[in-house]
Amino acid sequence: MAAVVDQLEIPGLPLFRRGKVRETFDLGDALLMVATDRISAYDSVLPTGIPDKGIVLTQLSRFWFERTRDLVPNHLITTDLSDLPAAAQPFREQLEGRSMVVKKAERIDIECVVRGYLAGSAWAEYRREGTVCGIRLPEGLTECAKLDEPIFTPAAKADTGHDENITFERMVDLVGRDLAERLREATLTIYRAAEEYARTRGIIIADTKLEFGLVDGELTIIDELLTPDSSRFWDAERYQPGRDQPSFDKQFVRDWLTQSGWDREPPAPPLPPEVVEATAAKYREAYERITGRPLFPLS
């Protein structure tokens, strides 16, 4: 199994931000974003990483950034390591495949979620209230049912803990109507195009979340795009409404953690090798199914 890149420090490059999964370094007029192999579940970063996970996240984001750049601008500048400053060059082996140089943006603190199917927290709310983020849906829908039209269900971002689902009108209060409407339109545009393409690859994108920022006043997609960490990917051939769906993400991890009896309070327990291997295989399969090419060798 490949070595896990769990944490990365680059002397000479100031750390801009350390997230649950990514390290971001300040290059002055740009940022170096590095996806590690850390994995989080239930708001905790686990002590066991998933080999090549960061490479999958970066390469799949790169694929989608390039495919959708004519629809909505994104922050990707390059993935070419030769463009990095001298301080980063000794770390090429750790950076290879998992790094992007991106534009600096003024982050908008809204998680832009779009749902084409009734799953996860949306299904839980629908069963209680008949709504999703305040949007009234038809009666009688089943778990994982396909919605007549995808719906935009924003959340207020939180650096720790869960993001908070909010109504569109609450989003308007937070960012203004013009920006709120632009965010909704951009999110739905990306989702519709990606969902249509993914179906040709035998994948259903049930839902996804996007992050946006402003670059010189232009609305721009930042962070990652349409990865197994930010989306629910289902196998189209195995899709059956009325039940939970097998997915290409960290479901093996969540299932094992639930069965382990962990109370979801930090620290999280280490993962057994078989769960690590199964999760790594699902991440790689998601990349290969969607892009139509193997993860390695990196192109």
Automatic annotation (TrEMBL):
Transmembrane segments: none
Superkingdom classification of source: Bacteria
Annotated GO MF terms: ATP binding; phosphoribosylaminoimidazolesuccinocarboxamide synthase activity
Keywords: ATP-binding, Ligase, Nucleotide-binding, Purine biosynthesis
Pathway info: Purine metabolism; IMP biosynthesis via de novo pathway; 5-amino-1-(5-phospho-D-ribosyl)imidazole-4-carboxamide from 5-amino-1-(5-phospho-D-ribosyl)imidazole-4-carboxylate: step 1/2
Known catalytic reactions: 5-amino-1-(5-phospho-D-ribosyl)imidazole-4-carboxylate + L-aspartate + ATP = (2S)-2-[5-amino-1-(5-phospho-beta-D-ribosyl)imidazole-4-carboxamido]succinate + ADP + phosphate + 2 H(+)
PROSITE patterns, per database record: SAICAR_SYNTHETASE_2
Enzyme kind, highest EC tier: ligase
Protein name: Phosphoribosylaminoimidazole-succinocarboxamide synthase
Phylogenetic lineage: Bacteria, Pseudomonadati, Thermomicrobiota, Thermomicrobia, Sphaerobacterales
